[in-house]
Design goal:
2 copies of one chain form a homodimer.
Chain A (H helix, E strand, L loop, with lengths): L1 E4 L2 E4 L4 E10 H4 L9 E3 L9 H20 L8 E6 L5 H7 L6 E3 L6 H15 L4 E8 L1 H8 L15 E2 L2 E8 L8 E6 L14 H20 L8 E4 L3 H13 L9 E3 H4 L12 E2 L1 H17 L5 E5 L1 E3 L3 H5 L6 E3 L1 E5 L1
Parallel strand pairs in A: 3-4, 5-6, 5-7, 8-13, 11-12, 11-14
Antiparallel strand pairs in A: 1-2, 2-10, 3-9, 7-9, 10-17, 14-17, 15-16
Helix pairs in contact in A: 2-3, 6-7
Amino acid sequence: MVNNISNTMIFTEKPNILSYASVVGKKEAQGPLKDDFDKIIYDAYGGKETFEQAESALVSEAVTIALQKGGFSASDIEYAFCGDLLNQCIASSFGMRNFQIPYIGVYGACSTMALGLILSSITIESGACQKAICAASSHFCSAERQYRFPLEYGGQRPPTTQWTVTGAGCCVLSKHTSDNKPYIHSAQVGSIIDMGITDQNNMGAAMAPAAADTICKFLNNTNTRVEDYDMIYTGDLGKIGSKLLYELLEKKDIDIKSNHKDCGVMIFQNGDMDVHAGGSGCGCCASVLCGHILNSMCEKKQRNILFIPTGALLSPTTVLQKESIPSIAHLVNIRI
Amino acid sequence: MVNNISNTMIFTEKPNILSYASVVGKKEAQGPLKDDFDKIIYDAYGGKETFEQAESALVSEAVTIALQKGGFSASDIEYAFCGDLLNQCIASSFGMRNFQIPYIGVYGACSTMALGLILSSITIESGACQKAICAASSHFCSAERQYRFPLEYGGQRPPTTQWTVTGAGCCVLSKHTSDNKPYIHSAQVGSIIDMGITDQNNMGAAMAPAAADTICKFLNNTNTRVEDYDMIYTGDLGKIGSKLLYELLEKKDIDIKSNHKDCGVMIFQNGDMDVHAGGSGCGCCASVLCGHILNSMCEKKQRNILFIPTGALLSPTTVLQKESIPSIAHLVNIRI
């Protein structure tokens, strides 16, 4: 059962992350987290005919490896919670179509991985299943042509932009069976926050207020402090969004600077890799979680972390229609 | 708690649908279900500047009316599960951004309303919340230009096509508090089925196998027969998909013909209204459920129904790339 404290979920039965996997592209493998990824696909097409098929293959690979690492077959898994950034979430639906796992599509833009973790945990705690997987993905080439310009156009990117990560991550969640594996302790589902930012090339600024809102609510409801956590990982605020998050939280007397990392900043060697404000995309925090972060936890280097992916709930159509950018941040407290 | 019988969910605490509402456009209001809708918006723009904004307004209206009918305010609701067909599900995110309800985006194409009902029910049964809403929408004009042609082009539609419903539906779900309101008894989450159909103008054919698969699994796992249900409602198979569903089920010695209706066939006066094979879109089954079907149940004309929306998990990009159409069907057993 889940305890509900002012809309913070406390998972009393500690659903485990029994196994996990990450698959990324060539550029991500040149970054500082290289050794934590399970598989690197050097060809942007991944041997497929289109970038969209390549992204679906990232999903399939991440799921396949996560199952293998845990010694599971697809038939052991009762539900799959998956999502991505492509129109109609096709990376997930096409990537998952051969597994025959009952499928629940989720959409939270770049916050999707957290939604999957939360919904898997709820479903397990409700008794509806014993095992579920969640996965999220993005691909630089499929995202660029959908959100911005065809790659061939060579559009110039403003310094505030972020670089969509080519990658996918997958977790296998289960009823608590091991005290030696990470588990989901608690979670906070975010509300939609729209502060009127309209610059689609500055997603960090649009999403920082959502992250601040969710973090404040969670710390308040759980009566915990920043220092209680080994690390607070945001999803893809990037360098600019992270600074804004610090400013917003300082106004509430919360200082996370020394305890915070952003997956979008971590995944690339900023300054060297032409990614401007950092990495982004559903696959950014998904591959960092299912690589570096969970590896650190399994090695007991970290025992209690907050994972807070943020999502910008816009589309190219709303940008053209001069709408502002509604954003959201979901938080998951993972412990071991 | 949820009982799990071979992946069929039995909701032991009978989460109630305490209130519900439907909002539709002008054409839907000319159909036979007119009197069951809560609000009709005669202007395709709904007083907004774009079709996408008009669709968001359908969502906001349906949610507002459902809350009003139940005597609730937005702050009574702990989670909102919403989705639609637009790229990045913007009808939902923009429609919901002013409610400040913790928001979980779902994507199941035209099966989205069932996903919302199922996830709301699981979340309530897990103890994570007392009340949740779910909503789904579609709009003929926003869908046509996204999936097919700009309206001004006047593209001719083959006879197998369906007409995207302009409409939205919203349900307020709650822990069981009333024996006099409908409740969610059980559910079956579908698996992705892809039989190789590539004709995007014949969605019914693509989705019928998914409906057949989910229905068979549910009847089998619950050890029930077609005659045990007052009516089996599919989402938007239309006339052609419904016939195919009968054929597929007959091969398994299941005859649902006399106990089946399809929301896509019900909502328009076929033959008169130029909709070809029937209605479609997330808003089709959502508005028929949150109008005609739940009204019939509250009037005790029907006490035990299956609601089985189907979704085609394609995108215009996958069509251009000559992919086949993966489909899915989720089933919800609603009783009173």
